[in-house]
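thought: fold this chain, then report.
action: predict
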Amino acid sequence: MKTAKILLVLSFFLIHLLYTNIIQAQSRYESKGSGSADTTIKVQMRQAQKASVTFQKPFKNKTKVVAQNGYYTLEACINSETTPSVEVFVNGKLQKNRDFKVVRASEKSKSQTCTHNIQHGFSLQEGNNTIYLKVKNTAGETKTEPYHIHYTYISPEKRIALVVGNQKYKYGGRLTNPINDATIIADSLKSLDFDVWLHTDLTQKKLKAVIDTFGSVQNKYDVALFYYAGHGIQVRSGRYNANYLMPIDANPKTEKQAEYDCVALGRVLSAMELGNNKANIVILDACRNNPFERNWASRSLGGGHGLASINAPLNYFIAYATSIGKTVPDGYEDTKHAPYTHELLKHLTKPGLKIDDLFRMVTKSVYQKSKQKQVPWKASSLIEPFYFVMPK
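observation:
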């Protein structure tokens, strides 16, 4: 009987112990449960970032670019978590999207924090150019700082130009525009990569010396140009009329004496022939009235007004301000330049114009501006096409 009571007490004790363990286990399980209302889970959301842009070309601000055709390729690295949209602006003008693509970066580029690459080719204008990008992703828009590229045209050949403007004549009266004309033509030719020799108000001795020195360097160049603004006349020389450039100290009393007081244009042509140039260009804005003709007793020697035609040697281009034997005014009333030079300047730096086309446009402009009174003339024996500015 006593043994039975002991067994009964032990049974109740074990049952109580088992129940207690079950209750404690259930409590621990519920406290670790993932859906408990008492459990707080804090999640910190990372904010999306706007795209960043690194220019790979140009490498730095105020990049100087020297090229023959002004074509340039921009390269940029974009770091963006999502695929960005890109707008390229060149000189304030939005470029067409079909001209460039945004592509995913290579693994190598990605290691340099570059998720996307862009390449865009475009034509630069002469002088300063400004480039910037606008890049958009889901976080917003990024606008880059403007990059500046200075483009200088470099011709494919070596060029030289002798530019002369004679204005202050001691005996033949002063002209108004030749120095202005020569100076601005010289500046334009410099921008076209000519080595320019500019001279103004030359005496006969100095004009001859400059021409001869010009000839001595012809073998160093591929293209030679001679521009003259001032008085020029034609004089009978043997069986033909020859053209003469008038220095500022010329004072011919007769037509025959003009051969000795002036400088023959043939001297210039001969100087240019000393080189094996692909193009020799002569531009004569010199068909102004002969200031001495009224004092000559007669024109019996057969000379004419203006300038005479020239039988140009091979690879020459010779341009006259007006037709053979005609004269032109010194300038427009509303400009500081002679009509011919004024119109020439409008076309000289236009890209992609062959020299024949350029001077055809000059002829049309002068003809219209002068109300059909002045018709520029040209003669060419060039074999190869010549461009002052190559096509882009």
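thought: worth noting. The chain has two domains: 52-153, 159-380.
final: tokens above.
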